[in-house]
Fold this protein.
Amino acid sequence: MTTLDAPRAPFRRSRATRSNFELYSWLFMRGSGVVLIALVFGHLFVNLVAGDGIKAIDFAFVGGKWSSPFWQTWDLLMLWLAELHGVNGVRTVINDYAEKDSTRIVLKTLLLVSAAVVLVLGTLVIFTFDPCPVGEPANLLPSFCTQ
């Protein structure tokens, strides 16, 4: 039978749990959320409102955007913050609802592995994207490509 401490008993924190990880995680969620709102609305404004709207978004548009280090950095920051923000939220849900330690460990391991794969692949796509592939028809390429 499990006994509970009296409601007014002082909280005793063990030495093993003396970490501020959850505090920093909570602060990260608030900070990354604010930054993500600015990044996402900036992204939506540039892609959908400024210019010709959604009909202008094609391979050439993305190629032109990602030829600029500014937009590469913008999209990379948006990818990383969104991924880490989401992973932190799912980690919290796993902590709240996984009852067995073994289940919690398996779920968190799967979460971290999948997050690492998405971050690595997304980063590679952003930085290795070639807007001027060799051998493609000129009418499909952005105007800045010289072939």
